[in-house]
Structure prediction request, 1040 residues.
Amino acid sequence: MSERKGYILFIDVEPNTGLKKALTKKRTEVIADIRNSGLKGRGGAGFPTGVKWNLAASASSDTKYVVCNADEGEPGTFKDRVILSEYTDDLLEGITIAGYAIGAETGIIYLRGEYEYLKKQIVDTIDKRRSEGWLGKNVGGKEVFNFDIEIRMGSGAYVCGEETALIESLEGQRGEPRNRPPFPVNTGFMGCPTIVNNVETLVTASRIIAKGVDWFTKYGIDKSTGTKVYSISGDCEKPGVYEFNIGITIAELLKEVGGGNAKAVVMGGASGRVVPAKDFAKTVAYVDAPTGGSVIVLGQERDMLDVAENFLEFFVEESCGQCTPCREGNPLLLDGVKRLKNGTCSMEYLQELMSLAETMQLASKCGLGQSSPNAFLSIIEHFETEIFGRVPVM
Amino acid sequence: MEDKKINSDTSRAPKSVKPHTIKIEDTDGIGGKVKVTIDGVDVRVPFGTTILDAAKMINVHIPTLCHHEDLCVAGVCRVCVVDVEGQRTLQASCAYPITQPIVVHTTSPKVRRARRNIIDLLLSKHYGECYSCVRNNNCELQTLAKEYGVDKYRFGHITERRHEVDNSSYALRRDMDKCVLCRRCVRTCIDLQEVGVLGAIGRGDETVIGTFMDKPLADVICINCGQCINRCPTGALQANDPSDEIWNAIDDPKKHVVIQTAPSPRAGIGEEFGLEPGVPLTFEMNTALRRCGFDKVFDTNFTADLTIIEEGTELILRLYNALVKKDPQIALPQFTSCSPGWVKYIEHFYPEYLAHVSSSKSPQQMFGAVIKTYYAQINNIDPADIVTVALMPCSAKKFECNRPEMSDSGYKDVDYGLTTRELAQMIREAGIDLPRIPKSDFDDPFGSATGSGVIFGATGGVMEAALRTVFELVTGQIADPDALAGQVSEIRGFDGIKYKELTLPEKLGPVPDILRMNKDVPFDSWDWLSGATLKLAVAHGTANAKKVLDDIIAGGKFSECHFIEFMACPGGCLGGGGQPIPTTPEIRKARAKAIYSEDQAYEIRKSHDNPAVVELYVKFLTEGPNGHLAHKLLHTHYTPRGKYIA
Prediction:
């Protein structure tokens, strides 16, 4: 029994309610439910889950895969760890529903290397479900639905959270993003149609099937239905994992966790944006202040250049090195922040760096490079006085 | 282009480096064409065409760096980004298939800014200066910098070396400080050639292209084909250049420096002097070599003809012993041995099949052995004072001449392997305007050659040359090379694997004199070949060689072949790792055309008609083809190396 407070995810549901219901429906009906629920990917990008499932379901191939992206690597994100350890059964149920919906026989959990300690628990739960008939041949007694789940371990590369790099890693290659298109729903794991869904997305999907679309859409706001689980850390009194209704503002969220006096929050981790206090009225949702779950609260005493430096050090380390803008750009941005800190970055060079940051956003091959300058740019945008004060007047 | 067939579906290459398949659907009625608007110009292209290819159709130039016609898509350099309306980010035009009508802008301000920034980023990490680089004036990075008006290093320029130059290989030299991480070499090695020596090591800005455990190239399973050099956009990869040592030998009055020249460099060297591909400069090159100071200029085609006699005799003996004597020890099909990249490939990848490889040395090595024995003898020169240089289209020849077993003359048979590119540099250095100097012929006694030797340069050439000789020697009828070419047209051209069955007539001629010179030839008539069907195959590029060998292992149709020609490089020698850069399917076709037109210009076109070859047997190799002395000087053995790296 979880002591967490929630509405959709952190609630107790009779095990396999969703799966049982799903198996009484046609595959297309399951997908229609997910689509009508308006569920968007909870990993951060917010792609409509029903659309993704439908694309994979309608791709012609005998073999398809469901991949659960449990490579939770965004700095400041730890909500999937909680779901993996406290809602293991529900996650496996969600993966099985997804497999039924798209016509897959194999589900793969790509588990973050650092979460090795959770592996046994997940494997035990898989074994239990198999012995109960919820995995294996004729799942839940449903003729011709065979489905099983296996675990593959990541090895600590942040980029493997990007779905095509994750698939490369699954195939035994160096974890590097592929060109898109084609997308995994068409050409994924081993060249077969593959859906890659976040842990939270899959559990939420099982809840939607269990309790109905109407129940789900009561939560959230028009364009972003349901709730979201957040990992809240930093300068606040009650850091932790929370489930909130989508539609909550940053100010309300900070009040809940005792971070009222924040200078700024980082929405979406190292790849996210820094939101200054003047914008705390923004709604935490896919349009206004998007996040895959990471909310880092920055207190008044934080030096924003420290924040930028910290994030850029992370990207310099985690860039896969494949494409030019990300590989060569991040070290230059980091160097720029260091120059800003010691007052040796000219305005002219800062302009060059901002142009470079734009190029990184526009021309990098994957989301890692495209989002790596976000923090840098938003700090320069919102904390002009703090930063330009250290720039020598040229 | 046909060469693309090289990428097989049996490839060991990781899925990631293979082109992803998109199902081609007829979205738009007849032809399945999709409309794309590029910079305001409408064009209808086949479904799935990339933006880059579509732009080429309307003469819009999009700069590229990691893209190469011979290789599958990478999309890593990001130089070719364009703006596709409706897309949040810029798209790599080389990797973007057009599957619905789109509007593309290739020169919008943000595209230009992005490209300029990317070029500046690449330059910031590109060590060294252009004027000290082998690729000066033929460098894709330099060209990009010029195209984009780079006038300063906006993001700095690295001044310290980060990597040691890897000089361990006889054939290749790797300078990773000049690498721009386009990964063309990686894709060449694993996808085009299916060797897989190179890969990315490290992450982020510490990424470097390296070998297994970053070992020196000489210690891994590199076959020295040099295809990576030909596709490197910068000077990060180059052949190991012996031209300083060769100049020193030329300048040394005690040394007698002879050079043999292979057919393919003639067909390619014009490209180094600004000519269109496919203009042969054979006789201008002879003049240039003399002006450079070489004492004698010989034609490798002479030993190509000799190879045909030796390798052909070996094949006939194998056939006789296997088919008539039923000797189970005889390995058939016989594989050719003239491509040193192929030889090292089979030594590493299929060592259990080495018995199939002809023991005949390559023409280069036969030449070296003859020069330092027969030639030294008849000219009364101490072989210790002879320096033999081999002008080759090949980087693997540098390794071959350094094999310890290649010293049957008592000396190192061939001292230096020189590539087409390196000779072009020597000629430039000597102030010679190659395309515009008088022509001159090869030197005797090894100046006479035949059209058969010339076509060794193209894939299928060794096979065709062998057939010209075998057909005539066996049937006793004069074979017209052009008629024969028509009969065996399947073995010309650039299909990756070629197969031909050729049935001999019932009525065959007498066993010719040249074979009878060898008293050990165990038959005195061709009756045993009467009406026989010869099964022949040709493969070029080691990816295709792999397919043929795997088929042989599986007992497929190639296991029934009698003779198979293998060349390590796509296109054969004319596409070798020592040839001018760049290389594309079109360029290789033009070189092939030059080679076949040279063949037609020869008066003598069959190896066994080469008077110098006949004379060599009469005066020197008196026990005939495959005789004792021929075996000592012209044949070799191989080393099972395997794939394990110590």
Summary: Chain A has three domains: 17-218, 221-298, 304-387.
